[in-house]
TrEMBL record:
<keyword id="KW-0472">Membrane</keyword>
<keyword id="KW-1133">Transmembrane helix</keyword>
<feature type="transmembrane region" description="Helical">
    <location>
        <begin position="89"/>
        <end position="115"/>
    </location>
</feature>
<feature type="transmembrane region" description="Helical">
    <location>
        <begin position="121"/>
        <end position="140"/>
    </location>
</feature>
<protein>
    <recommendedName>
        <fullName>SMODS and SLOG-associating 2TM effector domain-containing protein</fullName>
    </recommendedName>
</protein>
<keyword id="KW-0812">Transmembrane</keyword>
């Protein structure tokens, strides 16, 4: 798998996890204080915030941050990550379609100007646009980017199924402390699965 695909997968999951963890941190801290039995809270909100701030988009989120996001939103993490990848796909699709349309239109216009009207200046102008468009296609490479986005969407689907399998037992745990511990463990295993999936493609 190309480095860009790995970055897209990791950054999509990381951005979704951090956003959901930030959103749900206050809710869970309130619940954990209500469940607190001793002097140690169930969730260390400062540690989670530090992990979120230290988060690198080219790596996967820490299991504790991912556990908080999962405790709040469950599989919404993968829906949000998938939405980000699909937005990348749509952008690249529009760019690819535009580049191909401009290329075909300028090539046809150059041929019409050269052979039908006999106006060589317009033929040269449209031919220049076609050549510049080819350079844009070679530099931007929109078809390869479309392919990458599709591969990452497929990887997210695989990881989503594995996430559901790994967290099915966690959802049945009622107390927050046990559920967070279970989700941390599940996300630790899921990180290993992500690396396996990344190597497979």
């Amino acid at each position: 798998m190309a480095l860009n695909e790995q970055q897209l997968l990791r950054s999509s999951i990381n951005a979704a996890v951090c956003e959901l963890a930030n959103r749900g941190l206050h809710e869970l801290v309130g619940v954990s204080r209500a469940e607190e039995t001793g002097t140690v809270p169930v969730i260390d909100s400062d540690e989670i915030r530090r992990d979120i701030e230290a988060s690198n988009l080219n790596s996967l989120p820490s299991p504790s941050v991912a556990a908080v996001a999962s405790a709040v939103a469950g599989p919404e993490v993968f829906r949000m990550a998938s939405k980000r990848v699909r937005a990348t796909f749509r952008l690249n699709f529009v760019v690819a379609t535009t580049l191909v349309t401009v290329f075909v239109a300028s090539l046809v216009s150059a041929i019409i100007c050269a052979f039908i009207t006999g106006d060589n200046w317009w033929a040269v102008a449209f031919g220049g646009v076609a050549i510049a468009d080819i350079a844009g296609i070679l530099v931007f490479n929109p078809l390869q980017r479309l392919d990458r986005a599709m591969v990452v969407c497929n990887m997210l689907e695989i990881l989503y199924v594995r996430y559901l399998d790994a967290t099915v037992d966690c959802e049945e745990i009622e107390e927050l402390d046990g559920r967070i511990k279970c989700l941390k463990s599940a996300w630790s295993e899921l990180r290993k699965e992500v690396e396996k999936v990344v190597k497979t493609y």
